Amino acid sequence: LSEIARLSSAVERDFWLKQAADDLNIAQEVIQEEFQRVARGRTTPSPAKPQKAPDAAVIVPRRALLEERLLSLLAAHKEMLGTAGKNVRAVYFADEPHRAFFEKFISSSPVFSPEEQAALELFELRGQKDFGDWEKKNLEEEAAHLSGSLRDEYLKERRTELTRAMREAERLGNRDAVAAISKAFDDLIDSL
């Protein structure tokens, strides 16, 4: 963060802060707060301030929205499990609770904890609201579309992750890592 603080361009600082947040899987607000502390030269966090309502809406990644929509459809229309279940793999879900729900949905006898049951009921309500009066053909098309879009998002993110890892392994001259990442690329291509 101290290196980013030395950049003269606000655009560059913003870019690298966003990049750091994405790479570290940390909320941008947290990185921004820590950056402000570092930029002001403080070594200890500022005292807690009363939280105010956020000025802007929270931006939810596309993949998470697709996951939620697909789970809502499946919760409300369990007959679509066959259509979606054969086209979607659990690994496509980035959000661990979503992945766990999907794995339970496709299991032959799902058992949900009380917390999971409450979340399932929310998915069902959303699914009934969004897809309640849809005809079977439209539900199948939507399930196929959501499944395909979720798969595409997974493949895009996985390819980016492997590309970054490959560049780093090549930079370090780590031939074993390069070979392992090449194998992961081959596996990804075979999954298509």
Could you list some keywords that capture this structure?
single chain; 192 residues; mainly alpha; 9 helices; globular
Nearest-integer average pLDDT: 83
User: What share of residues are in beta strands?
Assistant: under 5%
Question: Helical residue percent?
Answer: 55-70%
Termini distance?
A: 39 Å
Largest sheet: none
Shape: globular
**SSE string, helix = H, strand = E?**
HHHHHHHHH
Count of runs of 4 or more consecutive helical residues: 9
Structure, explained:
- The protein has 192 residues and is an all-alpha fold.
- 69% of the residues lie in helices and 0% in strands.
- The protein has helices spanning 2-5, 10-24, 28-39, 62-76, 81-85, 96-106, 114-131, 136-172, 175-190.
- α2 (10-24) crosses α3 (28-39), α4 packs parallel to α6 (96-106) and α4 crosses α7.
- The radius of gyration is 21 Å and the shape is globular.
- The mean pLDDT is 83.
Task: Characterize this entry briefly.
This protein has 192 residues and is mainly α. It has nine helices and no strands. It is globular and about 55 Å long.
